[in-house]
User: What shape does this take?
Amino acid sequence: MRIPKSIILLPNLCVYSNDCGPPACDRLIKGVGVLKKSLLSVALLAGFAFGQASAPAPRKAPEIAFNVPGQGERLLSQYRGKVVVLDFILTTCPHCQAAAHSLSGFQQKYGSQGFQALQVAINGTDEGRTPSQANDLVSTFARNYQANFPVGWVARDAMPAFLGFSLMDRTVVPQVVLIDRKGFIRYQTPSTGESDLRSPEVIQQHIEELLTAGSAASHRAAPAKAAAKQPS
Assistant: This one.
């Protein structure tokens, strides 16, 4: 199902709605009055406060398949055992482009410790693009923003299905999801955005937290296994 979108830029996020204009992340809404901007900002701040006050309990990450140019179809479950930051993006969103730079730094720093960054574009097949053209679009994005991690694409409706959002929700990008080594979603932005989880510093803090938690669990499990093997 195609979800028509239009874009409003705000600090650290792009807001796109289903009820105004054709799908185009590169067509910014212009001429928006100061009052309208203020009201939108107030609404988003209220959403931030709600999201921070009612963080959901960890839940099993649904399976999702996405296409990575040169690698074919990949499954999220293939990264089980790693701490994953999964960003749903639009290739033309400036904040998604900036996020690629931050994630590349995290991948370089934490990759050897069991961290995996992923970005998945939801606009690959917009405007009637074929899968081959979607691959070209995503490849260009990854090259232009020097992503050192897999960047793939899915149909637009795969994002709300994975995140548990309604297709009618006003949604922002990038949508950020942090998944622990056991495949549980530990942190996720609500549809209207959450300011602290869009900060690279906060994301880095959560990455380190989940890496440390996973490492500690492994160390606790090792002596238990060794004890179980000892003869009675």
Notes: The domain at 6-221 is CATH 3.40.30.10 (Glutaredoxin). The first helix runs from residue 34 to 53. The chain has a mean pLDDT of 80.
